[in-house]
């Protein structure tokens, strides 16, 4: 166990030395996760408490990011909004990338009619832009709450990710399928499930991790966009896109901090995950190593 921990520690240090920008982005992501998980202890105020004596106050020592039209502390709502954004995007990207990877690997492994059928469905889904496909799913499913979680919103973010990941994983799995050890496993009579998950899947971990980090950023952006349009998270739940929806047009001239700080939070999160994905690709792919 100690040896495994030491090995993981050395891997992290190696990643930090070779990809310093990736290490910085990982640190930002960890800070966002920490703020979201421990929001009750980190945030200075309650996110839903209305204070009519502090309406539209600019940044100050009492409210570092100012207050909104209801006197709520914007920094507090950004911290709690990190929990909303990261929870929804993590669940959606994990589901989307995992289902897409399974479809892509299965399509490449079986080939023939199965590959043709899966790829035609993928082509149809890829013909829609991410936001358009998400809007279609939201319109079909509506708001479906299960244990307080909006399943319709998660599905609207998950489904557009699946075909994107399936296409990339399929291209990687096609080359792995021709490897001698995969052919040997098939000749030995191993089941298709064992060959896919035991012999092909480990070699697909690297592209999977890169895609997961990249589509985390896409999921955050999609969740913010849907909330901005009124189809995602609803009041009074703190959400970055929802914070922009109520202030982008009405209070931008009077209280620009209501737009600037949530916008910075979205931009920083998307930038961090995209940069981490690029760094992971360069670190995990031998072709990019010097």
TrEMBL record:
It comes from the Bacteria. Residues 82-277 form the ABC transmembrane type-1 domain. Belongs to the binding-protein-dependent transport system permease family. The lineage of its organism: Bacteria, Pseudomonadati, Pseudomonadota, Alphaproteobacteria, Hyphomicrobiales. This is Peptide ABC transporter permease. GO terms for cellular component: plasma membrane. It is a multi-pass membrane protein. Its main location: membrane. Gene3D superfamilies: MetI-like (1.10.3720.10). It is found in: Cell membrane. InterPro entries: BP-dependent_transpt_permease, MetI-like, MetI-like_sf. One of its GO terms (biological process) is transmembrane transport. Pfam families: BPD_transp_1. The chain crosses the membrane at residues 21-39, 85-110, 122-141, 147-169, 208-231, 251-277. Keywords: Cell membrane, Membrane, Peptide transport, Protein transport, Transmembrane, Transmembrane helix, Transport. The keyword Cell membrane applies.
């Amino acid at each position: 166990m100690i040896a495994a921990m030491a090995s993981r520690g050395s891997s992290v240090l190696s990643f930090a030395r070779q990809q310093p920008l990736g290490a910085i982005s990982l640190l930002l992501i960890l800070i966002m996760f920490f703020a979201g998980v421990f929001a009750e202890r980190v945030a200075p105020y309650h996110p839903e408490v209305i204070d009519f004596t502090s309406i539209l106050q600019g940044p100050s020592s009492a409210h570092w990011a100012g207050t909104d039209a209801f006197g709520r502390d914007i920094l507090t709502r950004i911290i709690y909004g990190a929990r909303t954004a990261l929870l929804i995007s993590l669940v959606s990207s994990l589901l989307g990338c995992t289902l897409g990877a399974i479809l892509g690997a299965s399509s490449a492994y079986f080939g023939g009619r199965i590959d043709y059928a899966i790829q035609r469905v993928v082509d149809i889904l890829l013909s829609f832009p991410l936001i358009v496909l998400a809007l279609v799913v939201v319109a079909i499913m509506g708001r479906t709450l299960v244990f307080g979680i909006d399943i319709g919103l998660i599905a609207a973010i998950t489904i557009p990710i699946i075909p994107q990941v399936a296409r990339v994983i399929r291209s990687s799995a096609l080359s792995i399928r021709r490897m001698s050890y995969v052919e040997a496993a098939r000749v030995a009579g191993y089941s298709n499930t064992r060959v896919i998950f035991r012999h092909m899947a480990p070699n697909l971990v690297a592209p999977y991790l890169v895609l997961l980090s990249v589509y985390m950023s896409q999921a955050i952006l999609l969740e913010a966009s849907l909330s901005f349009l009124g189809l995602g998270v609803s009041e009074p739940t703190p959400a970055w896109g929802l914070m922009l929806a109520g202030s982008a047009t009405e209070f931008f001239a009077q209280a620009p901090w209501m737009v600037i700080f949530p916008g910075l939070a979205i931009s920083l999160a998307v930038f961090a995950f995209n940069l981490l994905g690029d760094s992971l690709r360069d670190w995990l792919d031998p072709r990019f190593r010097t």
